[in-house]
Amino acid sequence: MRPFRSLSEQEILALAITLEEEDARIYGDLAAALRAKHPELAAKFHEVQQEEDGHRHRLINLYRQKFGDHIPLIRRHDIKGFVQREGVHGKPLTPEDARDRVETMEMETRRFYEAAAGRATDASIRQLLGDLAQEERKHERTAEEIPIGDEEHEAEARRRLFVLQVIQPGLAGLMDGSVSTLAPLFAAAFATRKDPNGTWETFLVGMAASLGAGISMGFAEALSDDGSLTGRGRPLVRGFVCGLMTALGGLGHTLPFLIPDFLTAMSVAIVVVMVELGVIAWIRRRFMDTPWPSAVFQVVLGGLLVFLAGVLIGSS
């Protein structure tokens, strides 16, 4: 992925066109999903969809004036700093769900336009991007007008911020540390099971794998997004949370190998792994709204495959 600061003015306009196309589709999907039970809100989202289409036409017209008819395909997931958006179709949707989606989407789009306008040197491009930032700010107010109690809204806003800045990087680190270190740890355990010092050597391998993974994941998370577009908070904080949880995820099933007896250490480590995978599934269910069957299946399947790979390699 490319950093946002590397984009030229031509690429910024191309990305803005793609963003407006996607935003318009999302508003159309929201309107369709809410039309049966909430027709007034659906009509409002349809109006905003038309406004987003108008933004796209203005961007395309300016692009043609400046750079010609060919618009390169630059998508949001090609650029660092954008939140991944889930589709709307096939899922039950409430006004509260719609509000959450719109607030996150419009905040991100507004921040993109503000950052883009600050980088633009061409007067007409800078003016259009600044105007669109103001119009996206109006769309944020559309979300605020969706009926929901103020206290509930504030609590939900704090929850989303907590998920973005702490839960997501922490969960990514915990999953990586708990799963990725299984293979080297159990490969070392089975390879040295007949060695009197085998559990100690396994412990050292687990420590190295856990700390190395923690440092790697911490840097990767900190460098992946500066938070300027997404509101995900300071990169150093996210990197620290991700790195810490990665290391803890690996250390959990490494510590049992301080026990000298191989069978005892292995049994305790397997129990710890099961607890870790259960905690990951619970966090995905609690904060990411992942259904229990999917959360358990995905986590357990991944952990089992990595565990088997370590056992097979260590036993060969």
State the share of residues found in helices, binned by percent.
Answer: over 70%
Q: Give the N-terminus to C-terminus distance in angstroms.
A: 39 Å
Total domain modules: 2
Determine Rg (CA atoms, Å): 24 Å
As a percent range, the share of strand residues is under 5%
The count of DSSP E runs of length 2 or more, i.e. the number of strands, is: 0
Structural class: mainly alpha
Q: Main beta sheet, described?
A: none
Instruction: Count up the helices.
Output: 10
Q: Identify the overall geometry.
A: elongated
List low-pLDDT spans. Answer: none
Order of helices and strands: HHHHHHHHHH
Mean of pLDDT:
85
Indicate the topology.
Layout: H1 9-34, H2 39-67, H3 95-119, H4 123-144, H5 150-180, H6 182-191, H7 198-224, H8 235-252, H9 262-287, H10 292-315
Helix pairs in contact: 1-2, 1-3, 2-4, 3-4, 5-7, 5-8, 5-9, 5-10, 6-7, 6-10, 7-8, 9-10
Description:
It is a single chain. This protein is mainly α and 316 residues long. The protein has two domains: 145 residues, Ferritin, core subunit, four-helix bundle (Ferritin); 163 residues, no CATH class. It is built from ten helices and no strands. 36% of the residues are buried. The model has no long low-confidence stretch (mean pLDDT 85).
In short:
This protein is mostly helical. It has two domains: 145 residues, Ferritin (Up-down Bundle); 163 residues, no CATH class.
